[in-house]
Structures are given as C-alpha cells and as structure tokens.
Design a protein that fits this description.
Length: about 425
Amino acid sequence: MARIGVIGAGYVGLTTAACFARLGHTVVCADVDEGKVSALSRAEIGAHEPGLAELVAEGLRDRRLRFVLGNAEALSDVDFVFLCVPTPTGEDGAADLSAVHAVLLEARDAVRPGCVLVIKSTVPAGTAELVAQLVGRSDVQVVSNPEFLREGHAVDDFLRPQRVVVGAEAEEAARRVVALYAGTGAPALVTGSASAELVKYASNCFLAMKLSYVNSLAELCERVGADIGDVTEGMRLDDRIGAAFLEPGPGWGGSCFPKDTRALLSTAEDARVDFPLLRATIGTNGHQARRVVGLVRDAVGGRLDGVRLGLLGLTFKAGTDDLRDSPALAVASLLAEEGARLTGYDPCVSADCGPVRVRESAEAVADSADGLVVLTEWPEFAELDWPHLAATMTRPVIVDTRNLLPVEKVTEAGFHLVSLGRPTAAR
Ligand code: NAD
Ligand code: UGA
C-alpha cells in the first residue's frame, strides 16, 4: 500500500483522497482553504455527493486519511502526489494553469527522491512534459492521470471506473500509478502523457458535441412534426451511437464541459488546427439557452416583462448541489434581462441565485405564478400534484426543458405544456 499526498480537496481531490483511503492507501489531503480543511477533518464535506461523507468518516476513523492546511506535508514523505487543483478558463479561453504552477513551485524542492507527481487536474496536451521541465529533477517522474468522474456519482465512478488512463514518458512510473487502482478492477490504458491529457478533453468535448447535436435535432423535430423521444429511441438501438447522452435540455453546463470545450478549441487554435465542429458545439449551446427563453416567451403570450415565472431546478443537473455554469441560471439571467420576475425551487439550493428568489417548495413557486419552467431533471418534479399547482397559478402554463413531466397527467390537470422537440400538449 502506498503513501499518497493529494493537493486540493475539491470534488476531485476529496473523492481521490477518500477513495484511495478506502482502497487501503494512506492519504494526506491538503488544501489552502482553512474552513474547508477544518470542516473535512470533522467529516463535513459541504457538498451533495452520495457516499462521500461516509468514506471520509471511515478514512478519518481508520487513520488512513488526514486533512492538512497548506501543501508541505502532502508533498514530503509520500510516494505519490496527486495534483487536483482547479484549471479554470483563462482570459483567452485556454486553461488557466496558475494553480498547477503554484503547487509545482512548492513541490520541486519538497518531494522525496523516487516520488511520482501525478497530474489529475484537467490540463492541455503537453502540460506533463512542461511540468517535468519545470520540476527539473531526474529523480522525480511526472505522470498524467485524468479523472472521468461525474458529479453526483463521484464515489462510484472512482471506485468502479470504466477505465483508468495513465500517460507518462517513463512506463515504469505509469505502471506504478496503475497499480494504485488495483482494487477497482478497471481496465487500464497506458499512453504517452500528451495522449492521456487529450483523452480527457476528447471525451468531454465529444459528449458535449453529442448533446448539442441532440438539442439541434429537438428544434428540428418541433418544425417537422417529429418527436425527439422517438428519434433518440431509434438512435439508441444502434450500438455504434450509444444509448447515453441523448436527452435534450436547456444546454449543457457544469464546472467542466464549458471550460473544457473552450480549452480544447484554444489548444487547436494554438496548433493551427481548424476545428469547426467544436466551435459549432459551443455556439449551439449558447443558442439553446436563448431558444428556451423564446419558448417560454411564446408560452406566456409573447412578452416576459413583469411576468412571474417559477423555475423548477437550478443546479446544472440533478443529483448535485453544484451551480457552477448551470444552464438553469443562464436561462434565468436571460429571462430576467427581459423583465421576468423569478422565483425558484431546487431540492439542493437554499440561497437566492442572481435574479432568482429561492423558495422552499415547488408549491411556493407555483403560487400566483404566470408560468413554470422545469430546468433541472430532479425526479421529484415528475410527481407533483398538478391539479393543485394549476389551481394556484394565474395561468397553468409550463415549459419542460428536460422532457421529464408525465404529459398526460399534466395536461389533464389543465396545463398548457411545452416540451423540447415534441408537439405542444394542451388540453
Ligand atoms: P474544485 O474547485 O472543486 O476544488 C479545487 C480545490 O483546490 C479547492 O478546494 C481549492 O481550495 C484547492 N486549491 C486551489 N489552489 C490550491 C493550491 N495552490 N494548493 C492547494 N489547494 C488548492 O475543483 P474540482 O472540481 O475538484 O476540479 C479540479 C480539477 O479536476 C479541474 O482541473 C477539473 O477540470 C478536473 N475535474 C473535475 C471534475 C468534476 O466533476 N468536478 C471531474 C473530472 C476532472
Ligand atoms: C462531466 C463528464 O460526464 C465526466 O465524465 C467528467 O469527468 C466531468 O464532466 C468533468 O470533467 O468534470 P459532470 O460535469 O458531472 O461530468 O456532468 P454530466 O453528467 O456529464 O452532465 C453535463 C451536462 O450535460 C449537464 O448540464 C447535464 O444536464 C447535461 N446533459 C447530460 C444533458 O443535457 N443531456 C444528457 O443526456 C446528459
């Protein structure tokens, strides 16, 4: 079993630390956020992530997991250091690597001979090689090990991954990193470091492309009288297309797809590779939020100024409390720009978000509203008491951007229901 240092205790760092502890390794997890470190030391994870708080508590109890303020301890006296710091969008669209660089400046004198520096943060192709130069130590190997977990499934995705990808110039160091995952039974792919770095962007951008494609198809369905549910069902039956990531929505968001699509485009531009497909993927997503606003405007009678709208769902997808780059909030901002007055309900959000006054229940946002808009696919929204909601609204109008609601029940309750890519259902 190895001694592992994890730098950054966010979604990826905390999951990495807790799951490696579960796999039997000894882990020190460092962060620069004092409040976060003290909360984590009490097993308070501050995020909605099934199973993670329990794993953290288990690691602390069994003394295989510790949280520390500042990176010194997690860099020295360990066999592996995992960098899990943020790589947000920089001013020019490229990934901003300043947090990675800051850690490296500390790491280069602090790590022991034989230590492997593992870059788990999502970084552009070529970064591991630059990092190796910056660290400048022949007794330290640099390895790329991108992370593919999804928020809301982080623990499961880490402990039962579909693949472990490890890239390095020195294969022996890559094999040592693969061995850390032995307990997961996942297939491992060992590549050069630039390839491993690119697998990460290629995967996220491909999924985003698939979603933009489906969102455009939904618009086309509305114009030609087709049903996107039937169209995607027909596509799903073809193994070559794959069954997942075919649900239309208000646009794709979250902390990674938006930044990673822009970063890959920036990498392509730097390499003088024209990538129109990626540009269109991003452009189509911006269009999707505006298109949803158009559907809402039409549904409530052609104007949004002064219209009271209740938003159902604010997080970027169901199963998480993460609001970063949420398409729901992008739609909310555009609605507010046109003068709509917004209340919102989300099972995982309690504080007001930008122009949205957050209420305690779906019933509270429906009360006296001129329309409802479903923006996140929380399953509980499909179970609401539609006749009751319709009775408390000024006009029973609902736009379902996730095609989540039971059409018959909702229309029987008197609602005018607008879905994406389906014929509009009115009683
Ligand atoms: P996050 O914002 O949730 O957490 C990052 C943590 O790093 C924060 O706690 C922050 O305080 C800490 N930090 C910042 N600078 C530091 C420093 N110099 N030293 C120590 N700690 C520092 O970020 P995240 O979502 O975990 O993402 C981290 C990386 O993983 C990004 O590159 C992201 O693209 C990638 N990634 C994220 C996900 C995801 O689902 N969130 C999935 C796969 C990959
Ligand atoms: C995504 C990837 O799925 C992970 O593999 C990756 O590790 C991670 O990004 C990352 O690099 O951070 P995540 O951001 O948690 O994970 O979210 P997803 O579940 O992929 O959803 C992304 C967006 O697509 C959400 O807004 C979601 O609502 C939307 N979506 C997804 C749809 O609109 N339709 C679908 O069919 C699926």
